[in-house]
Design brief:
The longest helix has 17 residues. The protein is α+β, with helices and mostly antiparallel strands and 208 residues long. It is globular, with a radius of gyration of 17 Å. Helix content is 20%, strand content 27%. Strand 1 and strand 2 form a beta hairpin. The chain has 4 helices and 15 strands.
Length: 208
């Protein structure tokens, strides 16, 4: 996904300027000051556009996975959230000006409620699910992989709707270890969300 380019808003004391990532890096404090029509993410201080409106297949897969997690976690201390939902991944401190990574995972599960505040989540979720869309594969597979691993996300799922596959990365001793590639017919069990499992037949149910 390309970094934000070009269209600055007119200079005005009441309107924040859109960022030019070529000329610097930004923090969560900057992020909160922007008035932008599109959703963006910060990854190590660089700004990335969110994908255009998700395609129908993406939304169907999202709904299938989210509903299964939501139902499973009813009455459970873990909470599930879907994008748009700010996940801040601090390195130095929780101060807004010190945080340079703010992502919008498609789905995330947070079991430590101390990480939740009125703005979203600050700290690594236990499970993150990203559903690939045309044009954003590079970001999910490289940029986000790095920050999720570094920040301690225990489990990272990458779902490819067109190929109907799922790859899971498990965090072991600070490094991600990949699963085999799961396909339709497989049942995938989570390590981060104890007892949760999902059939890929259900994940891709109804797709044409």
């Amino acid at each position: 996904m390309d970094t934000v380019e070009g269209n600055r808003k007119e200079d005005s004391p009441s309107v924040a300027k859109e960022p030019f990532t070529e000329y610097g890096t930004y923090s969560y404090a900057d992020y909160l000051s922007w008035e932008m029509e599109e959703m963006v993410e910060l990854i190590k201080g660089k700004v990335f556009r969110a994908a255009a409106a998700p395609r129908r297949v993406h939304q169907e897969v999202f709904g299938n996975v989210f509903s299964k997690l939501h139902n499973y976690l009813s009455g459970h201390p873990c909470m599930v959230y879907g994008a748009p939902f700010d996940v801040r991944l601090p390195v130095r401190s929780r101060k807004h000006e010190d945080i340079d990574t703010v992502v919008q995972p498609d789905i995330c599960v947070v079991c430590d409620r101390g990480k939740l505040d009125e703005l979203g989540c600050v700290g690594a979720p236990d499970l993150i699910v990203e559903i690939l869309s045309p044009g954003n594969n590079r970001k999910e597979l490289r940029n986000k992989y790095e920050v999720y691993e570094e920040s301690g996300v225990k489990e990272y799922w990458i779902i490819h709707p067109n190929e109907q596959t799922l790859l899971v990365y498990f965090l072991e001793q600070g490094k991600y270890v990949p699963s085999r590639l799961f396909t339709v017919g497989d049942v995938v069990a989570s390590r981060a969300v104890s007892g949760f499992e999902i059939s890929l037949t259900e994940v891709f149910e109804g797709l044409v």
